[in-house]
Amino acid sequence: MPSGNDPTRSYDLFIRSDLLRLQEIAARDREGFFERNRKYDDLRNHVVAVALCQGAALHFVDGRNGIKDIDVWTFYAPHPALRYPSRRPVRSYDFGDPRFGKTEDSPHFVGRRVDCLGRSLTRVLDDPAGTLRVYLSEARTSSARELARKAVVIIEPVDRLGCVVMPADCARPLGWREWH
Questions:
Q1: Would you call 41 helix, strand, or coil by DSSP?
Q2: Nearest to 55 by CA among 120, 100, 122
Q3: Residue 112 CB: number of other CB atoms within 10 A?
């Protein structure tokens, strides 16, 4: 089992069921968002991809970074009249399984804190991974630049589960399992 020296991080590796749990958390977050914000309801069917991002995604790729918290981003296709609100406050959820330990600043959670965020994209390609690579490589926003600095791993659509978007040169991450 990989290990590191930062006691605030978990060095356990992600498995398929962990990514599926993150899909469920992201779906619950979206449902809650659309229930509370009816004016964005037309975006409901514009989800291009949901991705594990930043440090936890880098840990999925390299097995060395460790997991401090878990960031999950939902990316939406362009809509003629709506954009996902980029300034929406981050919503935090309990991973619900103590296998990865706890996030220090969320002691009331059973497991690590999962932060859910979202962004509207300006264009979409045929492939969700390609779409996200373009968004990240163009780095037109501070969010795109920050996400591109570490790693991005698709967790939805399910047929692309575990697909590494960034770093683009990663052929087979340490956290990958023969899932398909």
A1: helix
A2: 100
A3: 25
User: What pTM value is reported for the model?
Assistant: 0.91
Please give the Cα distance from 11 to 26 (Å, whole number).
23
88, 142, 157: which is closest to 116 by C-alpha?
88
Classify 88 as helix, strand or coil. coil
31's CB contacts (< 8 A; 6+ apart) are none
User: Domain-by-domain residue ranges, the chain?
Assistant: 16-166
Q: How many residues does the chain have?
A: 180
Residues whose CB is less than 8 angstroms from the CB of residue 114 and which lie 6 or more positions away in sequence, other chains included: 22, 25, 69, 70, 71, 72, 92, 93, 94, 95
Residues 124-152: pLDDT tens digits? 999 999 999 999 998 778 888 899 899 99
